[in-house]
Structures are given as structure tokens and as C-alpha cells.
Design a protein that fits this description.
elongated, about 160 residues, about 75% helix
Length: about 160
């Protein structure tokens, strides 16, 4: 596997982990970084979290958020958005992997990172919209649970960068 393909697969896993796990406020890098440098910064992320499938994340989040039968219709929209985001990342990985391997220039490296970042942003926007619909229907006690679930995820993410 080429270095670019390897980096793309790792980058896609990282992006999916953030977007699909339900992180609604993805961290923004303080300065632009090439895809390879970005990956080195995130290399210490949990392997288990990156290998968790989208369906496992959906199931875990459903349980953690204590989704009620009355909320299932709105939850279905969140889950579908997570699946759509996963499919988009898989398409990007497949498209990049299909390219003939070659030496990657710094500009190409940045362009690749840009593609994945743009897909990540679009995916997060869709996820925020679908999750906000669900969140707005939750009673205050359940919103508190949701807030704690996302704070816990954010804390783990921050600690993995320490």
C-alpha cells in the first residue's frame, strides 16, 4: 500500500471517529497542517475507538443517550446521517486509494487533507442539524445526559492529545 493510501486510510478513520461518534464541535487546528503531520499528532488516538464500526457507534450512542420510543423517529435521522458520513468517507478513501501510487508533493498532501477536512465539515453540519432536531425534543433531564455523554467524549479526545 502506498504511503498516501496508508495516510488516507488513517486520516479517514480519524475523521470518521470524530464525525460519526457524534462529536458536534470538532476541534479546529490552530494552524494548517499537512495530512501527514496531522496524522502524527493524532497517532496516539485510541485504536479501539478508530476500529469501532458506525453501527457500533450508533448502538452505543443510542444506549448512552437513553433514546425513548417517542424519540426513535428523530433518532433515525441522526443514525442515517452518521451512516451517510461514513459512506462519504469510505468513498473518499476508495477514490484516493484507486489513484496510482506516486511520490506525494507537499501541495498534493495539503490538497488531500483539504478534501477530507471539507467532507468532515459538511458531515458535521449535517450531524449538528439532525442531532439538534432530536436534542430539542428531549426533556431537560435527558438533555443533561446528552451533554454529559458529549463532554465525556470531548474529554477523552483532549486527553488523547496530551
Amino acid at each position: 500500500m502506498s504511503t498516501l493510501s496508508s495516510r488516507l486510510l488513517n486520516s479517514a478513520a480519524l475523521v470518521r471517529r470524530a464525525a460519526i461518534a457524534g462529536l458536534l464541535g470538532a476541534g479546529v487546528l490552530a494552524a494548517p497542517l499537512a495530512a501527514s503531520a496531522h496524522l502524527r499528532l493524532h497517532h496516539h488516538a485510541s485504536a479501539a475507538a478508530m476500529q469501532e464500526s458506525v453501527e457500533q457507534r450508533i448502538t452505543r450512542l443510542h444506549t448512552d443517550l437513553k433514546i425513548t420510543p417517542a424519540e426513535e423517529a428523530d433518532w433515525t435521522g441522526v443514525a442515517q446521517t452518521m451512516r451517510d458520513n461514513e459512506a462519504q468517507m469510505q468513498k473518499l478513501v476508495a477514490d484516493q486509494t484507486a489513484l496510482a501510487p506516486h511520490s506525494v508533493s507537499a501541495v498534493e498532501d495539503l490538497q488531500t487533507y483539504e478534501k477530507f477536512t471539507e467532507a468532515h465539515v459538511l458531515g458535521l453540519k449535517a450531524l449538528v442539524a439532525s442531532f439538534e432536531t432530536l436534542y430539542n425534543t428531549m426533556p431537560d433531564s435527558q438533555k443533561l445526559v446528552a451533554d454529559q455523554v458529549f463532554q465525556k467524549f470531548s474529554h477523552k479526545r483532549i486527553m488523547s492529545h496530551a
